[in-house]
Automatic annotation (TrEMBL):
The protein's name: Helicase
Taxonomic source organism: Ardenticatena maritima
Source organism, top-level taxon: Bacteria
Keywords: ATP-binding, Helicase, Hydrolase, Nucleotide-binding
PANTHER family: DNA ANNEALING HELICASE AND ENDONUCLEASE ZRANB3 FAMILY MEMBER (PTHR45766), SWI_SNF-RELATED MATRIX-ASSOCIATED ACTIN-DEPENDENT REGULATOR OF CHROMATIN SUBFAMILY A-LIKE PROTEIN 1 (PTHR45766:SF6)
SUPFAM superfamilies linked: P-loop containing nucleoside triphosphate hydrolases
Record-annotated Helicase ATP-binding domain positions: 41-215
InterPro entries (alphabetical): DEXDc_RapA (IPR057342), Helicase_ATP-bd (IPR014001), Helicase_C-like (IPR001650), P-loop_NTPase (IPR027417), SNF2-like_sf (IPR038718), SNF2/RAD54-like_C (IPR049730), SNF2_N (IPR000330)
Gene Ontology MF terms: ATP binding; helicase activity; hydrolase activity
Helicase C-terminal domain boundaries: 396-567
């Protein structure tokens, strides 16, 4: 139907939509209903101050950038910055550009000079580039912070905000002090993002809330008054996946996570390596008890580091032991614990990028303090590690090969998580060698030794249509999106921080994963006491809490407390006998572990209360859906985009076809295109080596397909071409401006008028906005039709023939009558403007003074884009 095609083309070219939510006209994805909740919260605040603490993988980036795009479209911000850990800057830039149509620059040590070359005289990078993604660790320094603070933008988004709370750790405290300075400007919009707002330290949590409003930092979070609770709830949203699926979506919108445990047994050679290593570590811990405290702690760190490397892989063991030679030969003084932060070499941190190099320093510093007889025992360990490495005695690797092979045969694409670089490289090579029977198998290894750009490039190069395995260290475990190409996780090395377990699994189990289920596998040795301690003391407790609460709760102690718990569990009763099982009642023999678990359970109860309070149940799904439907009516929803592209490509001679195997995937031909295809449309097609272009109109998008939304360049090119063709070439235009047809959809002559209406939105802040919409008005001899009925008639099918002369006469009569209808049209447009005014006020209803002066006023005259005359069958006779 030419008239409907024109209507779709006209509204798909709109940018400044008249609906209260303006940002939908500028974004290239289709967010879920629940992701609009923070936006509605933000629009009810005069100054946006929000802490978004939804679960890992539900789309906090999308939620924050929806707010940014909306504030931008309303003219409330003209510059904004995202402060992120350095390893997430490139991903933020990609999200801004591809999904929200912002041209963002990355500001960090490696880009500053290049950005400064393009500055006009007298300007800084902060006031010249309107959208910035800044490394928080770069900008927090004294050298860089003051220039940013002097030229700080209207909106600041802080990612991984739990790393910017008050702390006795220097780096974290510097981030907190910097963000606090940013927050001091009361008129500045501030959005904080974290999946773990409460680290178990109450003062740190209050310091985070205090960034939103200073008074929040003084409140007792366990005893909030009703007034305090209501005030905080306006600035804080925290939902689990269970909340979202039950209360917001009413359906499953995340993949089903299938968790399982796989085990292996140590070979005789590996068992001998472990036994000798354990005896050595037990000995140096025991003899170190007589040393002064700092030297004793260094030995504890060294023992734990060596044990962890040995049980990670023989390659990691050799890499760690090799460092002792360099340390012994350089004759340097002992580096005491107060000088070096050893915990990052052993425990995975919540707030910093974990160091994935072998923990050579604590091992080497331990070796320096040993007697010559103790040092000689290390030669035996090196010999045993080389034997396991050079022979086929690594049963841990052998078991992994079987597990990965099984996943590949079942169609999964797994990520194998390793603790150390040496282990990751060793495992990747082992998989390549042993799984060569899989045709075209890609085994990609990514570690912290690669720069951010190289990591991203290597992931981008992975072919989503071929078998693939990613072997990675925890350099990829936080904030990175891997769900588009991977569907399973194997923890080859169990993390010693339970929070890291969820972060790893959240790389595939997150919003955007199109596979119906993902597999996550904890892999450990049945006769590996190190794994047993980590499982009993840490990981099983984390799983128990997750099962009860529906989300993970951060471990409530600092690294020193965890060290003592693990250390005591490993060395409490001497060398573990073969009869000792992995599961051991540590709580009965170690009060420190019992205290840790008790505090953890307390935090879980507190977290449950918090999430119940701040799941934003005051907002209802139907309220959010009403606003989305209002925007869709103006701009067109994903179904409208699909319908338009389907009809447009057909009329232009290269019809798209559905994928016979995958739902929601379509193929647009790239070869055999008609010779008369408009050059603009031809240019908008992707230049790829393929016969067809796989596209989808749903978001999240099936793997391998391109999401084609209303803002995609191809859709925009089609819409503009067809719309402009209709305006300039009435005779043979594919989307005709005028028409007449006989149909059984009406029983009386009916005329449809296609109008473009412009409005002025007068805002309380004085920043007037322009908006527009395309409307269908319907009229019969008896009067005007409802909007719903007029839109319904736009789908009328022809059921008879009219001569060209009669069509022309019918259309001419309608156009001649149009001037006499202008007053009626004006009244209907003004009524629509009043409805829009009420809709805008409804969005901002919670503000005390935010609706004063808000008014939507139509601009006349309206544009008559087209008319369609519908005649009943009787009129043909």
């Amino acid at each position: 139907m030419s008239a409907r095609l024109l209507w779709q083309a006209a509204r798909l070219t709109l940018r400044e939509g008249a609906a209260p939510i303006r940002s939908l006209g500028k974004i290239s994805i289709r967010p879920r209903t629940y992701q609009f909740v923070p936006l509605l919260m933000a629009l009810r605040l005069e100054t946006v101050r929000l802490l978004i603490a939804d679960d890992v993988g539900v789309g906090k980036t999308i939620e924050a950038l929806l707010i940014a795009r909306e504030l931008w479209e309303r003219g409330e911000i003209r510059r904004f910055a995202v402060l992120a850990p350095p390893y997430l800057c490139d991903q933020w830039q990609k999200e801004l550009q591809e999904k929200f149509n912002f041209d963002a620059v990355v500001v960090r040590s490696g880009t500053v000079r290049q950005l400064e070359r393009h500055l006009p005289p007298g300007q800084t990078i902060y006031d010249y580039y309107p959208v910035q993604v800044i490394s928080i660790d770069w900008v927090k320094t004294d050298r860089n912070r003051y220039l940013f603070l002097e030229h700080a933008p209207d909106l600041v988004i802080v990612d991984e905000a739990h790393g910017a709370t008050q702390s006795n750790r220097k780096g974290q405290q510097l981030r907190y002090e910097f963000v606090s300075r940013v927050a001091q400007e009361k008129e500045r919009h501030l959005i904080l993002l974290t999946a773990t707002p409460h680290s178990g330290i109450e003062s740190a949590f209050r310091s985070l809330l205090g960034l939103l409003k200073p008074e929040f930092a003084e409140w007792d979070m366990g005893n909030l008054t009703q007034e305090q609770l209501q005030s905080l709830a306006r600035h804080f949203v925290q939902r689990t996946r269970r909340d979202i699926e039950r209360d917001w979506e009413g359906e499953i919108c995340f993949p089903k996570r299938i968790s399982e445990d796989l085990t292996y047994s140590l070979s005789p050679g590996y068992q001998a390596l472990f036994q000798e290593t354990y005896k050595f570590c037990h000995e140096i811990v025991s003899t170190g008890r007589s040393l002064e405290q700092r030297r004793r702690r260094v030995r504890y760190w060294g023992a734990l580091a060596l044990l962890r490397c040995v049980m990670s892989s023989p390659a990691a063991a050799l890499a760690a032991l090799h460092a002792r030679h360099e340390r012994l030969s350089d004759g340097a003084d002992l580096v005491l614990e107060e000088d070096v932060d050893f915990h990052r070499a052993i425990f995975e941190s919540d707030n910093d990028e974990t160091d994935d190099e072998q923990p050579s320093l604590p091992i080497a510093e331990t070796v320096v303090s040993l007697q010559e007889s103790e040092q000689r025992k290390l030669h035996r360990l090196v010999k045993l590690a080389k034997q396991v490495h050079s022979t086929d005695e690594d049963t841990k690797l052998q078991g992994l090969v079987i597990a990965v092979d099984d996943l590949l045969q079942k169609g999964y694409a797994p990520i194998v998580w390793c603790r150390y670089v040496a282990t990751a490289e060793y495992v990747a090579e082992g998989l390549r060698t042993r799984l060569s029977a899989h045709t075209g198998l890609q085994v990609v290894c990514i570690t912290g030794r690669q720069a951010d750009e190289e990591r991203r490039a290597r992931i981008d190069e992975v072919d989503a249509h071929a078998p693939r395995v990613l072997v990675a260290t925890d350099c990829l475990s936080e904030g990175v999106n891997l769900q588009e190409k991977f569907t399973a996780v194997i923890h080859y090395d169990l993390p010693w921080n339970p929070n890291r377990l969820e972060q790893r699994e959240g790389r595939v189990d997150r919003y955007g994963q199109t596979a119906p289920e993902v597999r996550v596998i904890r892999y450990y040795g049945v006769d590996n006491p190190v794994d047993g301690v980590v499982l009993d003391v840490l990981l099983n407790k984390a799983r128990e809490i997750h099962k009860a609460l529906g989300t993970y709760v951060p471990i409530p102690e600092d690294s020193e407390s965890i060290t003592e718990a693990v250390l005591n569990a490993l060395f409490l009763r001497g060398y573990p006998s073969e009869a000792r099982q992995l599961s051991f009642n540590w709580l009965e023999v170690d009060p420190k572990i019992a205290h840790l678990h008790k505090k953890w359970e307390y935090d879980a109860r507190r977290e449950k209360i918090s999430r119940t309070r701040f799941a934003q149940r005051a907002l209802k799904p139907e309220e959010v859906q009403r606003e989305l439907e209002a925007a869709d009516a103006v701009l067109g929803d994903p179904d409208a985009v699909r319908e338009f592209v389907l009809e447009a490509t057909s009329r232009l001679g290269f019809p798209m076809k559905p994928d016979p195997r995958r739902a929601d995937v379509w193929h647009i031909p790239l070869t055999g295109l008609p010779s008369n295809l408009p050059e603009a449309v031809r240019y908008a097609l992707p230049h790829i080596q393929a016969d067809t272009w796989e596209v989808s109109f749903v978001s999240p998008t099936p793997a391998g397909a391109t999401y084609v939304g209303r803002n995609h360049a191809f859709v925009q090119t089609l819409a503009r071409f067809l719309f402009e063709e209709a305006l300039t070439r009435e005779e043979d235009a594919r989307a005709a401006r005028t028409g007449a047809l006989v149909t059984d959809a009406v029983d009386t002559p009916t005329t449809l008028y296609l109008l473009r209406v412009r409005y002025l939105v007068q805002q309380p802040n004085g920043r007037d906005l322009f908006s527009e919409e395309v409307r269908i008005l319907g009229r019969t001899p008896a009067g005007w039709l409802s909007d719903e009925k007029a839109l319904q008639y736009l789908n009328a099918e022809p059921r008879g023939n009219l001569s060209a002369e009669e069509k022309q006469q019918r259309v001419h009569a309608v156009l001649k009558e149009w001037p006499r209808l202008e007053d009626d049209v004006k009244q209907r447009v003004e009524a629509r403007a009043q409805a829009l005014t009420e809709a805008h006020k409804r969005i901002r209803k919670a503000m005390r003074s935010g609706v004063r002066g808000l008014q939507v006023t139509p601009r006349f005259p309206v544009d008559l884009l087209g008319v369609l005359v519908l005649l009943p069958k009787e009129a043909q006779q």
